# Entry
Amino acid sequence: MNNPLLEIFNTPFGTAPFSKIKNSHFKPAFIEGIKIAKQEIDDISENKDAPTFKNTLEALEFTGEKLDRISSIFFNLNSAETNDEIQKIAQEVSPLLTEFSNDVRLNEKLFKRVHQIYTTKEELNLTEEQDTLLTKKYKSFVRNGANLSDNDKIELRKIDTELSKLTLKFGENVLAETNSFELHLKNEEQLKGLPESAIEAAEMLAKQKNKEGWIFTLDYPSYIPFMTYIIDRKLRKEMAIAFGAKAFSDNKHDNKNTILNIVNLRYKRARLLGYNSHAHFVLEERMAETPDNVHEFLEDLLTKAKPAAENEFKTLTRFAKKDGINKLEKWDSAFYSEKLKKELFDLEEEQLKPYFKLENVIEGVFQISNKLYNLNFEEIFSIDTYHEDVRTFKVTDSSNNFIAILYADFFPREGKRNGAWMTSYKEQWVKEGKNSRPHISIVCNFTKPTKTKPSLLTFNEVTTLFHEFGHALHGMLANTTYPSLSGTNVFWDFVELPSQLLENWCYEKDALSLFAKHFETNKPIPMDFIEKIKKSSNFLEGMQTLRQLSFGLLDMKWHSKDPSDIKNVKEFELEAFSDTQLFPDVHENCMSTSFSHIFQGGYSSGYYSYKWAEVLDADAFALFLEHGIFNKETAEKFKTYILSQGGTKKPMDLYINFRGQKPTNIALLKRAGLLK
Ligand SMILES: [Zn+2]
# Structure
């Protein structure tokens, strides 16, 4: 069968031939791609020659190129332009891919070769990048039990199976508890305070359920506006308690024991592999490196942010008192925060939007990238896309060298998942002396243009575009030899540095004046708007910081010690929160039983990374502020030492090369107004 996915892409820049691909091509392509990759790996593991870096590690690194291209096309489509058929194919091919990666991980002959090279690596005269690649590949085997005895290997598989069941169950319980609650209001009086859009959504939900009135649920799009705007305090209390009680009641969806089982199994797994705790295991492959470093990081921020948080809490308490609230409770937080914010900064989203026409913002981010990194963006129309909304750009440097292809897909539609993300259709690498450039994509869900109005972005959408573009720069400017170390293939707590760093330009007058112009009058955005944006972005920052720190500390507490003597989940949690709580405890509630980030998603021992990334981006931006936000020398350093380096060196080394020193939290605290 003629399958365009399996042929060499005879297209401009070797881009994906979207218009020729039919859904029926995917499964056979996956099967063939896996077959080719398997053969390539067998050739390595069965090689009669003694193992060398070149015939084993480098060869392994470049296996499966076809499979990678097929996977990236398919899974990117499954996120950005999916349908029932694609989802069905995803379900069929996912087990094949898992089986293939397990085959590689458990390939003992292959591991033996890698192991032999690893143990003699001092004699091999490897470059730093090669050393990193070797360590990364070796660890990928060892962290999955390759060095264990046969009995321990069986034990490890048992734990893994059990853990995947438990995390799945955790998620199912949270979902069931979220779905089992609804607040059904029949009296219009009760909706007082709520914006029109939220009322409409609640009305629609009621109609869907064949009911009169309005229905509110614990899903964020329903819950958040409710807690922020509903004036009736009793109703807010009812919602908040229902929200906080998810999977904590003694019913069949209770997660208390699920959690205890998860943390104990994670601990057991880590010990089996020779680590002190699950956190030690996780942090080995993070910039933070050890639980002690994370604790020190969180505690230091806590000491500095707490006084500000306590002051803000007092201010908020005083503010609510005028409304007759004697004791500020959790269900008052969002409501009075919003009210106070409105009183302090009278700035409506609608006033800002005319200054952020999408085309202008894109032009702005291109110009900023040009000023910083000498990049040029030319829209081209010869490249295939998967949807007519997708735009494509050829990216070159000042000497007209080809740097990357950039796809940009801005508007929501059926078949696209929510949110915004950066991804790639092809990584960057150097093979046989040739630098093969990447194909990067950013996907967003921005306000669509209408017949009479262009797409006008909210300020939040503007920072989102800059954020994703920062990731895209990391991908586009990649300049490494090995694809698995290229671009955004870095440790998890380092990957948000380029993206969050670029957001900083959205708050700077000299950057905004490049593109924030009224779409009708072309007048630049008023200065006092910029001041208000800046100030309001720091509003109640101390309290927010304290909240983030409390989650980070709770996560670390669950994962950095032997958990076998923890009996009472709520008591354990209260103790973990003892330094960070401003509001009175709600005894019917528990955070841990629905803390999906750490018990379902992949954030266990990783919640701290949100704050970690902020510290990094603020500290990095401080250098730009010091020398000028368009200072070429600073930008060149960031490009040379960070953007182009991917994961070729330890992130802390990369950072110190750029900054001249380790990051400190001073810039973040200053930016957040927590340090005068
Ligand atoms: Zn990001």
The mean pLDDT is 96.
